[in-house]
């Protein structure tokens, strides 16, 4: 049974979702489909939905996972391309919201600043800012789908001499609509997913594009279309074909990841041979495409139909492995003494992480210090009641985990109703559980900020797993009352209508 406090005043919802991106729209869909009697609202800091897929508008922006796993479990991805462009993904998210009426529950330009839990009332009081004015709501459950990076600023290192540069310096997270790179010399600083996307896309119109990297990244070419998926879609229809292809892709990705961790030398060799086959004869592969780390210590970059390698073969793009010494008036001077002329320099230097959209959490008047909390099942915080967040996989599609989290939330809410509880809170009382970083990942953007995030534990359910199959069993079918959650009833409440 769902309950609300007698003393409640002002606006109240059962579940308050923060963020109207891929995760938030998926969470709302699962919630209203399974529990149509529940009230919910989505607060979105920006003026439109779509999250990442609306924010990033640089040339060629696309998914870095296949769309049969990045797409929602409940809504088949029907396009032929398995690695989709940003506008197609944005349209997919917006169509999902519109068709289910989720867009009517979104409040745009509402940035959540603070959320305070009261055990006495069994409520969250959430303070947001809308066009400079304060807004306050209460909710029984707080569900944060704000991702883990800062939307208003990417990581932008200070480059010596950048103030004297007479060309255009731009960060992909803030791409100017009016920027025209046709016939221009372009240098892209970076070697991650954004850089390997930008280089071939800009090379189509630029005079030349140079990818300037401090060190190489593992890059793997794959077909832009999944022939098996397209064939099964024609034979079986999208609804029947989708789960088959989804599980096939999960299995292939899991196999590659596990093989990379257990037989790294074998996988390094396979990727190196595949890279050599994509590049011109005699190309210095070991300088520009041989990373110093093992496969999947950082995320593997995918290039559809080998478009980056094709741009290099055609002479439209090149790779330079060196360090920026300083900017000059016309480009960059490198540590080796070489100079690169550039009309446009793109600083594809990564993200700045931000836990829970920067929301300040408080429980019964005490500020929650995130590094002092431990993540339960990678989706709740020790000592923080009725709070759930979404962080996806680093070795697979984000949505695989997001879907499981939203399914678990539905199961958890049903469990509370069934037993007459109003709140639940994870508690770690096992002294054998030791602390670990929440994200065990060597990417620079993670290492720069991981100490500001909650901790993970050395064993389940406190360890953030990176296995979809294991999480599926634990979150979709595992016991809710597993001994690590504490449930409670709030006395000063009256029954409300059934959820």
UniProtKB/TrEMBL annotation:
GO molecular function: flavin adenine dinucleotide binding; N,N-dimethylaniline monooxygenase activity; NADP binding
Gene3D superfamilies documented for this protein: FAD/NAD(P)-binding domain
Annotated signal sequence range: none
Pfam entry (one): NAD_binding_8
Keyword entries, A-Z: FAD, Flavoprotein, Monooxygenase, NADP, Oxidoreductase
Domain of life of the source: Bacteria
Listed InterPro entries: FAD-binding_MO, FAD/NAD-bd_sf, Flavin_mOase-like
Cofactor(s) essential for the protein: FAD
Keyword Oxidoreductase: yes
PANTHER family: MONOOXYGENASE, PUTATIVE (AFU_ORTHOLOGUE AFUA_8G02570)-RELATED
Protein name stated in the entry: FAD-containing monooxygenase EthA
